[in-house]
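User: Study the chain.
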Amino acid sequence: AAMRSRAEVDATLQTAKLNPAELLPAVQCLSFGPQAGGGECCLLQLEPGLCAELEAGRSLVIRGEKDEHAVLCSKDKTYDMKIADTSNMLLFVPGCKTPEELNADGASCNIIYSQIAGFSKNYWELRRCRPKLKKLRKLLMEDPYEGPDSRKDQTSTFSKYTTEDLLSLIQASEEEILHQLEVIDACKIEGYWRILDFDYEMKLLNHVTQLIDSESWPFSKVPLRVCLEELGSLEPREMIEHILLSYGRKYVDDGEIFFEMREDKICRAIAQMLLQNAVKFNLSEFEEVWQQSVPEGMTTRLDQLQGLALVDKSSRPETIFLLKVEDLPEDNQERFNSLFGIRQKWTEVDITPYIQDLCGEKQTVGALLTKYARSSMLNGVKVYNSRRPIS
């Protein structure tokens, strides 16, 4: 009964053996309103930072295609969405007064009649997660850019993607997507995001390094203006600038734009070019050819190849082969399965570049190894192997 009298309320308290003196004087009588069906309302639990986003008028977006697990994104973060069941029924009561509000009200012995507008037995719980960015590279690699003269580009039937397209397809926040586009050296061509075909990229890089060599410029001071003037007849000027941005650090000196070329990245790209044509390469032969192939004045080091190539120390002679971290699965368990399929036992030094990107905000490589691998000693060296049999 919604319309209870004070006498009925007091009788109920007496039956429940509750002392009215210990309670607030106000009583809320609840009744279900005509539209109080369950299921129309969803509850979302927000951390203070996300709450502030909404209060400031910014929006949160739920992203994912039909076959994907939904994620929620703010401008710069991504959250997994999980349904959490509660043992208590959660009631939605418009204009509901909390005990604190009633206390401040100082109302004496009043009865408040409240209607329940809806109820829920669960709510969505958000958990900060790594943005799911692997798909970004996959989409752009469907149709890599081979240069302005490419016939393929004029007849291509593949989709091309604008920023809006990527925002609707990739489960990550806008800032995370834009940052990843930078990481994978994507560039905008006619309004669409593209990745350069690797051979075309190497051709552009070669033009730049040959010009640096012929002009005897230091790698730390390569002038943009002269590069564009000299190479503009060979390739589009925006492509020359893009390759300088990808392989150099831009700075301004005395009003002119210069680039400091990144030795490690250039050496790494040339190693990839050499390794992609062989299944395995004799390590000492590779090191020799590699050093001869990089621009004069640059020094090659194996640590430039972390997450790109793997040395097999157990074979005689030692070999090296291409193993790119971006080709491995994004899911933690699948990633470890894949790695243990390639090699049964790993040292921490060897496996780290291949699992580093799986670490969450406060997670370490050590914690991942503890969870997904078991350790043992091999010839005095700690090695890790799979916790489960690999088929």
Observations:
- The domain at 198-261 is CATH 1.10.10 (Arc Repressor Mutant, subunit A).
- The mean pLDDT is 90.
